[in-house]
Amino acid sequence: MGHNPGVLDEIDLNTLKDPAGIFELIEVVGNGTYGQVYKGRHVKTSQLAAIKIMNINEDEEEEIKLEINMLKKYSYHRNIATYYGAFIKKLPSSTGKHDQLWLVMEFCGSGSVTDLVKSSKASSIKEDWIAYICREILRGLYHLHQNKVIHRDIKGQNVLLTDSAEVKLVDFGVSAQLDKTVGRRNTFIGTPYCVGCEKIS
């Protein structure tokens, strides 16, 4: 699989297929930065998938295209949720609602690291679990950084666990492709509670 880290594909959202008959929704499993996340199923194979549904409006169209690009190009790594595809559910203009993008990726059935911490309540998470999760996060980040991509929103909710305890990074809605010549980003973005004090003014 050839990957050119410096080049992002031009994506025309209007050319995406309708998800009807391909994927079906089962239940809501979470809320992301730009929409709800559902547990879904591929109609023909019954394979489970995570389906992030976002309303498409002009203000967020570029971020949506960026997330699709990032997933298409970099989700072939074991520590990044595998991208299965993107679909458009067209809504009648008479409803006054925006069309919906269905971003379909690997389903991580054991939830997020945040869920793991909350479920352990009184007891703390074992140190070897913490070490394992941190190592796997770093492997995923190393893969992204090798391709000049920064995630910019690493937090417990964006680190998911599969049923076989694999660690997967998700939510590339605010990630960035670094400029090849400079290799830095001077903009700040992310979740305020998960950043260093010096970044908040």
Structure description:
With 201 residues, the chain is α+β, with helices and mostly antiparallel strands. It has a single domain (13-199), classed as Orthogonal Bundle (Transferase(Phosphotransferase), domain 1), CATH 1.10.510. The protein is 20% helix and 24% strand. The radius of gyration is 17 Å and the shape is globular.
Gist of the model:
The protein is an alpha+beta fold and 201 residues long. It has helices at 61-74, 113-119, 127-146; strands spanning 23-31, 35-42, 48-55, 83-89, 100-106, 149-150, 159-161, 167-169, 176-177. The chain contains three helices and nine strands; from the N terminus they run E-E-E-H-E-E-H-H-E-E-E-E.
Radius of gyration: 17 Å
Distance between the ends: 43 Å
Largest beta-sheet details: 5 strands, antiparallel
Contiguous runs where pLDDT drops below 50 for at least 5 residues:
1-6, 180-190
Number of helices: 3
Principal-axis shape? globular
Helix content: 10-25%
Give the name of the CATH superfamily.
Answer: Transferase(Phosphotransferase) domain 1
Structural domain count: 1
Question: How many E-type strands?
Answer: 9
Organism: Ancylostoma ceylanicum
Keywords: ATP-binding, Kinase, Nucleotide-binding, Serine/threonine-protein kinase, Transferase
Family: Belongs to the protein kinase superfamily.
Binding site for ATP: 52
Explain the layout of strands and helices.
Layout: E1 23-31, E2 35-42, E3 48-55, H1 61-74, E4 83-89, E5 100-106, H2 113-119, H3 127-146, E6 149-150, E7 159-161, E8 167-169, E9 176-177
Antiparallel strand pairs: 1-2, 2-3, 3-5, 4-5, 6-9, 7-8
